[in-house]
Amino acid sequence: MTNKVVKNNEISSVGIIGCGWLGSALAYQLKKQGVAVLATRSNSDNAEQLKSQGIEAEVLSLPAEQALVNTHAIFKQQCLVIAITPQFRQGRVDYADKIQQLVESAKEGNCVEQIVLLSSSAIYNGLSGQVKEDSTLDMSADKVSVLNQAEQAVLNFNSHCSNESRLNALNDDVGNKKAYVLRLSGLVGPKRHPGKFLLNGRLLKSPQAIVNLIHQQDAVGLIQALLQSAICGGIFNGVSSTQVTKKQYYQAAASALQLPSPTFDESELSAESDPKVVSSEKTQAELAYAFVYDDLLTWLEQGE
């Protein structure tokens, strides 16, 4: 399917929902460019922490009554970046419901022109070989169904607006609504050096799996590229071109921090005959984004 291209208006304001480690880095970059930023966190302590860092922030805790969510100031922004985490490890199963609630509020307010959902390459769980944005998903695999429901809720923001546009062809603002999903791979960067995951001396599984990673700076760059894109919407993978085994990468990470070489569960070697590789081909071609840290082995060696 060919992506529709629409007029790309100047960005004046961005709301970052769930503004944590990555969202804060995005906020700083947007503010440098003169874009007004409003961020949210789920509790007042974290919101105050953002304020102390110079980021305007308010509390938004989900799920909540839809009518109450609709009135939140975040939905007065021109663009929304949804960066809340699924919290699967905490046993949460309501991620898709939260995303749906945010999309409904964005529709109701009629101020939001585009939404970027920061999803996860975990949506490719259960697959092997090269995986692309149009790969058929394994809905029986862990996390996949919930992540897919969340993505579809955001992509339907675009469809909803397209339907409205047909009813009111004179309304250019409605016709310019956009919805993007950015499937981010494992994040590395400041305060997230992969070598630090080795400090507890745990046994690492799947040594022959291919690492699918992206640096924080490139994740921010891709989000900005989507916000500025003339493409009407779609799904994009956020991943570097670094394609080495988990064993190679974490050995290099340990060496960079002068840590002992990690221990791997070699019993899983036979299970990785066709390791999963997340493709960045579409992202690099359609967004024309040049990665700053496309080679994450070099990044480790440089110690940045």
Features of the shown structure:
single chain; about 300 residues; alpha/beta; Rossmann fold; 7-stranded parallel sheet; two-stranded parallel sheet; 10 helices; 11 strands; about 15% strand; globular; disordered N terminus; P5C_Rdtase_cat_N; NAD(P)-dependent oxidoreductase; NAD(P)-bd_dom_sf; NAD(P)-dependent_oxidoreduct; aldehyde dehydrogenase (NAD+) activity
Strand content: 15-25%
Total beta strand runs: 11
Separation of the first and last Cα atoms: 40 Å
Q: CATH superfamily assignment of one domain?
A: NAD(P)-binding Rossmann-like Domain
Structural class: alpha/beta
CATH architecture of one domain: 3-Layer(aba) Sandwich
User: What's the mean pLDDT score?
Assistant: 90
Order of helices and strands: EHEHEHEHEEHHEEEHEHEHH
Q: With helices defined by DSSP (H or I, 4 residues minimum), what is the helix count? A: 10
The largest beta-sheet arranges its strands as 3-2-1-4-5-7-10
- Unreliable stretches (pLDDT < 50, length at least 5) are 1-8, 161-174
Q: Which CATH top level class of one domain fits?
A: Alpha Beta
What overall form do the CA principal axes indicate? globular
GO cellular component, one term: cytoplasm
Protein name: NAD(P)-dependent oxidoreductase
InterPro entries: NAD(P)-bd_dom_sf (IPR036291), NAD(P)-dependent_oxidoreduct (IPR051783), P5C_Rdtase_cat_N (IPR028939)
GO molecular function: aldehyde dehydrogenase (NAD+) activity
